[in-house]
TrEMBL record:
The lineage of its organism: Eukaryota, Viridiplantae, Streptophyta, Embryophyta, Tracheophyta. It comes from the Eukaryota. This is Uncharacterized protein LOC111284489. GO terms for biological process: proton motive force-driven ATP synthesis. Belongs to the ATPase g subunit family. It is found in: Mitochondrion membrane. Keywords: ATP synthesis, CF(0), Hydrogen ion transport, Ion transport, Membrane, Mitochondrion, Transport. GO terms for molecular function: proton transmembrane transporter activity. InterPro entries: ATP_synth_F0_gsu_mt. GO terms for cellular component: mitochondrial membrane; proton-transporting ATP synthase complex.
Length: 124
């Protein structure tokens, strides 16, 4: 009985949400397009989308040397810090340790998500 009641409530809420979207959706869509019309490329064709996707890809590709240079600066900074580790303050060491722990935690979380939110890796 309780499951049927919950199902009826869920169906009622879904119907209400659907009606709300049907009533207010087109107006929201028009307002959104009007507010952001300066981003819209004319004419909105498949060819134009293809051109924009190629521009994005090659622009990102062109940014690789700058990113590589910034990465090299970061590596040089770490090397400098490692050479002068005797002068390293406790605060800096603590921040580096916390950063390492955060990276490890994100890695573990990614592994858990990748396994389908299981801790053992097996589907039970």
């Amino acid at each position: 009985m309780a499951l049927a009641s919950k199902l009826a409530q869920l169906q009622s809420k879904a119907t209400q949400a659907s009606q709300f979207v049907a009533k207010h959706g087109p107006l929201y869509y028009k307002q959104l397009l009007e507010q952001n019309k300066h981003y819209i490329q004319e004419p909105p064709t498949v060819e134009k989308c293809d051109l924009l996707s190629k521009q994005l890809f090659y622009t990102r590709l062109a940014s690789v040397p700058g990113r590589y240079e910034a990465f090299q600066k970061e590596i040089d900074y770490v090397k400098h810090m490692w050479k002068n580790r005797k002068e390293l303050k406790i605060e800096d060491a603590g921040i580096a340790t916390l950063f390492g722990l955060e990276c490890f935690a994100w890695y573990c979380a990614g592994e858990i998500v990748g396994r389908g939110f299981t801790f053992t890796g097996y589907y039970v």
